[in-house]
Batch of 3 targets.
Target 1
Amino acid sequence: EKAVNLKKDLAEMQEWMTQAEEEYLEKDFEYKSPEELENAVEEMKRAKEDVLQKEVRVKILKDNIKMLATKVPASGQDLVTELNVVLENYQLLCNRIRGKCHTLEEVWSCWIELLQYLDLETAWLNNLEERVQMTGNLPDKLDAVNDALESLESVLRHPADNRTQIRELGQTLIDGGILDDIISEKLEAFNARYEELSHLAVSRQIALEQQLQTMRETDHMLQVLQESLGDLDRQLTSYLTDRIDAFQMPQEAQ
């Protein structure tokens, strides 16, 4: 009777493992929204806990069958053979569910990381857009133009590492068919805004550099003219002081 009960327990255990495999490992999942992906992660976590909780039951079965095989070798040997099959299938199921759970957790982490990088780069784009707008109505002063140029250039020196991460994380998820529509839409919008703002910012940078160069050249010309006028003023003053008649001077002095 004990052998019959143990055989029944083995059959029930095998049936449960078959159902678990069908439910957790053989279903085709399509992760088209973050909610679906998050739910799948939580479901696999529960599946892993459920399978690992059966470890106690498997151990009890193993001990009981081995004890029976020791006491009644004739009826226990067949059970040991069935037990070995169940133990092998159970270990395989545990490994596969652990692996799938780990994979889904990695995918979810990849999605969260992508969102974080997008948030960082969006904040940078907002800052860049603000700096570009600030260059629109500058006072016609060299210091103001120079400060605006330096401010814009400091933002443009932003490293490209985050954008590289966005591209690689997004492509990894899209290649796996995970959230591909949502990610493609987000990346398209981000890249379009990045291209537009970066081109606009570079154009404004070039315009400010040219404006600054023109203002510096004008200032230099004014300085030279001011010095020339100063020399002429001192020379004419000396003529007046010495009471020299203009008709006594060279033509250019007259």
Target 2
Amino acid sequence: ANLALQEGRLVAAQMELNNAQIQLDEKQMELDRVQAMYDTAMKEKQALVDDAEACRRKMNNATALIEGLGGEKLRWTASSKNFQNQIVNLVGNVLLATGFLSYSGPFNQEYRNLLLHLWKKEMDNSKIPYSNDLNLTGMLVDNATVGEWNLQGLPNDDLSIQNGIIVTKASRYPLLIDPQGQGKIWIKNKEKNNGLQVNS
């Protein structure tokens, strides 16, 4: 009788255990679902935190760039104004440069300056704008080219550089009156790699 009673209790306990196991499995599945949702939410949170940090870095960089460029505004404004002046004065400057290339070749520095002064006077009378501080040498040739010419034997004075400009930029063949032979040395060195042939 006791055995039967205990077996009955065992069966009841086994059923209770089975029910508890079923509940435990259900709760475990629910916990797994909630854990998966939690993990997804944490990943989204981390992604948002990373995005926010990236945005903060970009904003800091943009702020630094804007502050850095703020100082350039004055220089850009001045450059823009200078470019506008250059555009307005371009026709007159080109006219002076072409006049220099076409007509001033045979003359010395003093007469070239006189010609330039007379041309500017005529342009003032005709209301043709030009740059008052126009540097024809700087307009027609860059410093690197002048430096190369000096290495090739051209003297560094203004007259010689102007002569070099006329030789290289004018459309007509130049005639060099060259008692010291500096022009001849320069042209030989300049054209050495181009197969220059010299008749002595």
Target 3
Amino acid sequence: PYERPALSKAYLFPESPARLPGFHTCVGSGGERLLPEWYAEKGIALILGTEIVKADLASKTLISATGEIFKFHILVIATGSTVIRLTDFGVQGADSKNIFYLREVGDADKLVEAIKAKKNGKAAIVGGGYIGLELSAVMKINNLDVSMVYPEPWCMPRLFTAGIAAFYEGYYANKGIQIIKGTVAVGFNADADGEVKEVKLKDGRVLEADIVVVGVGGRPLTVLFKGQVEEEKGGIKT
């Protein structure tokens, strides 16, 4: 268990980046680092590398991929979400190399390698939410030439008023980040090695890119509980 916000912030810093065990859970909030030993000391069985493939809420039973059975009295569902990929919608060229999503530490490791390999290159960020804003900033810190594209009239529309968004957009523009609003990525062109080279936008513009990071949202992971719980708006109703 690790502090996930670090993956879009300090994990990608060029100087003294965050690495495990430095960002185990709770370290970010100034609490104790919850290393594996912490769980053992508190009498908590921390079972890693184990995927639950079936949940039977009626019989209060979970079954792992290897057939192990876990019984429970109380179940906390904290399965989070899975990242929405452009390949899900059949976007042309979305499977090119150096198109990244940021969900877990493995994704961040791949992105770190790409940043090192494409020094002083061009980065295109697709999406204007948390991931879009944070990755645009971190790419700029790594001396890449950054463009950020999103369809909404301003960044973080679920959270920001037009005025707050205008402040951040101005701040980013002053740092040299190009912001392109009101359009979406509809395709990608790759070179002979299959590495992304261009992002094609719906408004006809084409952006050069050595690295693309896509942050267009997530979907709740509810498949284990289908038909056993009440759902609403794609998630479990609580």
